[in-house]
Predict the structure.
Amino acid sequence: VQLQASGGGLVQAGESLRLSCAASGHAFGNYAMGWFRQAPGKEREFVAAITWSGGTTDYADSVKGRFTILRDNAESTVYLHMNGLKPEDTAVYYCAADIYGATIATKASEYHYWGQGTQVTVSS
C-alpha cells in the first residue's frame, strides 16, 4: 500500500488544520492507521491511531482533547483533525499503516507502511 499525506501548512496558535492520508491498494480497510510526528532534533513520536473499523482510537496525552483521528474506508483515507494548535505541535506529520488492523499500535516500529510526511508549523 502507498500512503500520501497532505493538508499541512503554516497556522497561528489556536487555529485548526485537517491532515489527510490517502491510501492506494485494496487492503486499506484491513489496516489500523496511525499518525506520528517528528520535530527537528527529536525522535518520531506517536500522535494518534485508529483500528480498521474505526471503533477504537488512541491518542498521545499531549494531543488528547484537541486532535481527532477518523477514517473513511470507502475513500481509503484517514484524517487527523487538529484543533487548538500550539507551537509545540510544529513537526512533520506522517501517516502509517499497520497490517494488524484490530489492534492499536503506538510504536513506530510496529507499522509496516509509511507516507512521505507533511509539514505543520504553528506560530505563536
